[in-house]
Write a structure and sequence with these properties.
The complex is a heterodimer of chains A (155) and B (100). The radius of gyration of chain A is 17 Å and the shape is globular. In chain A, a hairpin with a 2-residue loop joins strand 2 and strand 3. Chain A has 155 residues and is α+β, with helices and mostly antiparallel strands. Chain A contains 5 helices and 4 strands, in the order H-H-H-H-H-E-E-E-E. Chain A has a 4-stranded antiparallel β-sheet, covered by helices on one side. By secondary structure, chain B is an alpha+beta fold. Chain B is 41% helix and 21% strand. In chain B, strands 2-3-4 form a 3-stranded antiparallel β-sheet. A two-stranded antiparallel sheet of chain B has the order 1-5. The longest helix of chain B has 17 residues.
C-alpha cells in the first residue's frame, strides 16, 4: 500500500512575481489600459443588458473554475489587475463604483486570456445595498461583499 | 416579454426568464432583472409564490403546492392572489406566461 505523504513546498518564484514592483513604464502602460477599458465600459454600460455586456467584454474568455493553486501565475496576474483597478478607477471622473470596477477588471483579464466571474450580492432591508466584484478561480480579486451581504447571482 | 393577461388558467405555463435571478431572505425576496439592472422585492409570501412557480412551471401546480403550505387559507383566495402576483411579475418582465 502506498503511504500517503503530505508535502509542503516553498514557492519563492511565486512570491517574487506577486510582489514584484512594476517599472514606471509598466505602470504607465497598465494605467492607460485601465483608462481605455473604463471608457469602453462607460460607453457600453447603459446600452446593453449586463449578461450581453459581459459577453462582449470577455470576448469568449470564461472562468474555467480551475483552482488557483493550479493556475498560480494567472491568479497572481488577476490579483494585481484587481488591485490596480481598485486603486486607479476611484481617481477618475464619473461613476467608478463596484460594478464599473468589476467590468473593467473583467475586460483586462479577458485581454490576458484569463477568465473570471462577476458576482452580485445584496444586503436586504431598509438600508438596501447591492455590491459587485470579480473572482478568479473562486477567489475575490476585488473587495467582496461585507458581512450582511448575500450572493444573488454570479455571471 | 409576454403580453400580460388578467385571466390565467391552472394549465397556464409560467417561466422565470434567464435574465431574472432572485434570493430569498427572511424578511423579503430580492429579485434582479439582469437585462434592465433593476432590483425588485417581494414580501415573504411573494417569495414562496415565486419559488413554487419556478419549481412547478404551471399556475395549477404552483397553486397546489401553495395550498398545502398555506392550508389554513381559502384556496380561492390563494388562487386569486397567485394570479395577481403572476400578472404583476409579468408586467415587470420578471415572469413569462405561456399559453396552455
Amino acid at each position: 500500500m502506498t503511504r500517503l505523504r503530505a508535502v509542503v513546498r516553498d514557492r519563492p518564484d511565486l512570491c517574487d512575481r506577486a510582489h514584484r514592483r512594476l517599472s514606471a513604464a509598466e505602470c504607465g502602460r497598465l494605467a492607460a489600459e485601465i483608462i481605455v477599458a473604463y471608457v469602453l465600459v462607460r460607453r457600453m454600460i447603459h446600452g446593453h443588458p449586463l449578461p450581453t455586456l459581459l459577453e462582449r467584454l470577455r470576448g469568449g474568455i470564461h472562468d474555467g473554475g480551475v483552482p488557483v493553486w493550479e493556475a498560480a501565475d494567472e491568479h497572481i496576474t488577476a490579483v494585481r489587475v484587481g488591485r490596480a483597478v481598485a486603486r486607479l478607477l476611484p481617481k477618475l471622473p464619473g461613476d467608478t463604483r463596484c460594478l464599473t470596477q468589476a467590468l473593467v477588471v473583467t475586460r483586462l483579464l479577458a485581454r490576458r486570456g484569463i477568465g473570471s466571474t462577476v458576482l452580485i450580492a445584496v444586503q436586504p432591508g431598509p438600508d438596501f445595498e447591492a455590491h459587485a466584484w470579480v473572482e478568479h478561480g473562486g477567489v475575490p480579486v476585488l473587495t467582496p461583499g461585507a458581512p450582511g451581504f448575500d450572493r444573488l447571482t454570479s455571471l | 416579454m409576454s403580453t400580460p393577461r388578467t385571466e390565467l388558467s391552472t394549465t397556464t405555463g409560467v417561466r422565470l426568464p434567464q435574465h431574472v435571478v432572485y434570493r430569498v431572505f427572511p424578511a423579503e425576496t430580492v429579485v434582479l432583472n439582469l437585462d434592465t439592472g433593476t432590483y425588485h422585492s417581494t414580501n415573504p409570501v411573494g417569495g414562496r409564490f415565486l419559488e413554487a412557480l419556478e419549481r412547478d412551471g404551471t399556475i395549477g401546480g404552483a397553486l397546489e403546492q401553495l395550498c398545502q403550505q398555506f392550508e389554513d387559507e381559502d384556496p380561492k383566495v390563494i388562487g386569486a392572489d397567485l394570479q395577481a402576483f403572476c400578472v404583476d411579475l409579468s408586467e415587470r418582465g420578471l415572469l413569462e406566461i405561456k399559453d396552455a
